[in-house]
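Dear colleague,

As promised, here are the two records you asked about, laid out in our usual form so they can be pasted straight into your sheet.

NAME FIELD: protein one
SEQUENCE, THEN STRUCTURE:
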Amino acid sequence: MQENNTISPLLAVRVEMFKRGDYSFITEREDRIHDKQSEALEILCDNTHVELLYGGGAGGAKSWTGCSWMAFSCLAYPETKWFIGRRELKILRESTLITFYKVCNEYGLINGIDYLYNGQDHFIEFSNGSRIDLLDLRYLPSDPLYERYGSLEYTGGWIEEAGEINFGAYDTLKTRIGRHLNDKYGLLRKIFITCNPKKNWTYN
């Protein structure tokens, strides 16, 4: 993707709001404030917490929150690198990626100008050099320790639908965050975990 650091004035204002900790343009929708989403974004962008688990059933704005955090983190901090992981890449493309497109459309990101999805290598590239890798986190008997991701370096990441994920994926990926330009921007390593109610490793 050819680099283009010019974004629309409205999007530039929203990026600046995000950097200053004002998430009202995300959390105030349909004449109401989504308090849980506000709290999640504050935690995801603070300098205290390194992990956040956001649980609940459908309609709780989990995916919208994750996509918004990812998109605006990429816009606010050029050349950073993030991941979104789910049990199957196919499901990620058919669900989470669709929500990502909706988020971008809602907040004024233009596909092909501000960002572009590479369907061959499965990553989203932004015009400022930031990137989101889409990861297939299914358990493979040939790779029980998820060594396929053991050498990657990320600024932060998001595990979607953690109830479907093997603990080993989380255990490996949590060691890969905080390794890409975090010091430059003063960003704490962050891993965001979303899930529906289910009793597995997420309860520990």
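NAME FIELD: protein two
SEQUENCE, THEN STRUCTURE:
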Amino acid sequence: MFEKRVLKIKGGSNFRDLGGYQTHDGKKILWGRLFRGSALNNFTNHDLRVLKRRHINTIIDFRSLDESLNDPDIYPETSNDIRLTVLDQDTTYSTITPEEFHRLSHSNGFAYKQMMNTYRRLITDEFSQQAYRQFFDYLLNQDDGAILFHCTKGKDRTGIATALFFLAVGIDKETIFQDYLLTDTYNQEQTEAELERMVERGEDDDDIDNVKHFLLTDRDYLENAFSAMDEIAGSPQAYLKKYLDLSDEKIQILRNKYLS
């Protein structure tokens, strides 16, 4: 399953097929229709060929304008690259430099609190809701080929998008969390290298701990998003209908397109 799910990308990490997951009524997400990933700015010619072979003709970039302009996607000429900013300000600090980080609070637990707040904002903020409504519009209107959606690390904005899609088609909560937490496996080499550089530079322990919370997934973060859905809508399913405009008819269209 691991080999089938992961895309062999050389210029990035955490690129994977969402196929194979089973819904509560025994259906499965189709392979080769929907992919999640991180930034495409370091893609090689090999990576472009991988996207072409997978028939990925729509790429949705969840990053902020600054992120997209500073590190633009590299994608095949056959693909349509769509910028769909999810956070009006990137509070995931996914592209922060060491110098910029030092200007932030160094108190222990700063990053954890920041990420908890960010996951709540991804659910409750009208700006984010509008972006995710548009995301589902693209999914609903995709007839041929596959869609790849991504942010910088493929963890937070992409993680919420994946969770919302899974909820819509009927994947159980525990499976949603398992897929979310897999990001740490796929980003492990990159994350360990970044933390090792901090140790070699003699960075403060609180700084290293904060960076870990920015780089790694945490079940608490996603639980906070689910709690926010419960709080403002009554349940995740009600949230999809009330805030993301996913009617029963639209959900059935999604299931018809992406399940077998």
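A couple of things worth noting about protein two: The first strand starts at residue 16 and ends at 17. Strands lie at 16-17, 34-37, 56-61, 80-83, 146-150.

Best,
R.
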